[in-house]
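Help!! Second protein's tokens look totally different from the first
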Amino acid sequence: MFTWYRMSNLTIVYLADVSENGSLVGSKWFQRAWTLQELLAPRTLLFYVQNWSLYKNLESPNHKMDTTVLEELENAAGIASQSLMDFYPGRDDARSRLQWASSRRTTRPEDVAYSLFGIFDIRLPVLYGEPAEDSLGRLLAQIISQSGETSVLDWVGEGSRFHSCFPAHITSYRTSPLSLVSGFDAEEHVLTTGREATSSKALQKLYDSLAKSPLPRFINRRLILPCLAHSATATRVEGSASHLVYEIQASGLKPLKITPPHGLDEVGMSLGALQLVRPWNPKVLGTSNRLDPAVKQRLLLTLLQPFSVLLLAKLPHNEYRRIASSTVLVAQPVDSASILQSKVRAFTIV
């Protein structure tokens, strides 16, 4: 369907719940999942309201290029104007695309995922009757397999039965993803001059490990995920029985608090069983094959800032499962020295 709308010369949207003097914001059209592709795919789009007049009687040949309409569209759809005007299907910026869909509804639960196939340029079988978390899981697995995109792991809420790294519901993507802090100067956080040579060697070693790490991939319901790993060294429980909060201390990170929906079992509480990890994608390093000044600055800028962290619990056979959280988990490196001592590992997660 995405291609059908994409190839159209003109797409007309009739908004039966918007009066002649009404607003796009609040229309049910922006609450339905299937209409997201009807908004993004067409190059030329015109909105008609309840009495079949053009929206606000605007004579613009394309409402997606009209500044007046664009401002309202941004508010109604929660999508930046640039993406509305110049959208291309694919896996780039996958986390933002999932957020666009996170508040939309469907009659059949599994359609939440099916309605996104065209937006991500994904081809998968449509299996009506499968659980909604399975259809969403198949979509997310395909995004990772085709692109190595790890931003889809950044969510809050209940974990899926399909895979522990995926959410049970697309609503888990409503929270905005963590972004780099503007104006952050990585050089201010480099080790002191007296240890600069050691710092450079350690950074080169870390860079080599990251550059050689494989792309994330999803095989046989197992996610092979390269990460910067921080082993938990201590766990402390706070709060009441109805609301348990766990404070976790891990090597190289400041203490972190987590509220798992179902708590931590004895395996999760045992020493050495927990890992706090930063998913890694070698694409972050760009196309350069050496640690030149530009790559060094980008690497430090990335590693020294707070980041969305995953909590993993060890299982038999050297496999792990993700422990979901009811709140956003943001880890803060202790200092640059701790970052340079980070270990790069590929975890098998089920």
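Here's the second one for comparison:
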Amino acid sequence: MKIAITGCNGSVGTRVVLAALAQGHTVHGIDTVPCSEPLAGLLLRAQDITESKFEFSIVDLMNFEVTLAALEGADAVVHLAAVSTPADYKAVTHNTNVVLSWNVLRAAAELKIARVAQASSVNVIPLVWTDHHDFEYFPLDEEHPCRPDEPYGLSKVYVLSTFGCTCRRVSLKLAFCAESASFRRTRSCAGSRSCALPAFA
């Protein structure tokens, strides 16, 4: 399967790239900056699993037509590209994340790519970057109300709604992954359980 992975240079993206390659998939890594040193180094050390199965493109996913062209030929998309903090707590994070997710999801629908995984966040509750933790019960689950008070968490709530909107019109298999934090590791995690890809079967 050919998987397009957006945000492939990020701390989560590099792990997902390696996990996909280790499972025998072909990967199209997409980011806004050149292939990062950590990703390039990991790919070099994992040459036995990468062979010619990895291609990389610098793509501005804020442009819908460019996104459409970049995802053409993919069988599945793992969308990890995003501004990963509230940044200035004003407009950049919210507006960027909402447009990125809409463009990727809409392009997948147009191209009939039926398998999409999207990074969500625990901050839809909210959890991090808030002064007001508003938990109604424990353990937390998917039914807990979403009441973010900052732009990053709000952008992720909109993304959930965007996926719902699209799925009411197009048949898609979706997976949401809500990570609470990610840290770079110095060793390859290819084959590790912690790097498991969403089940696209």
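Reply: Different proteins will give different token patterns, so don't panic. Residues 183-201 have pLDDT under 50 and may be disordered.
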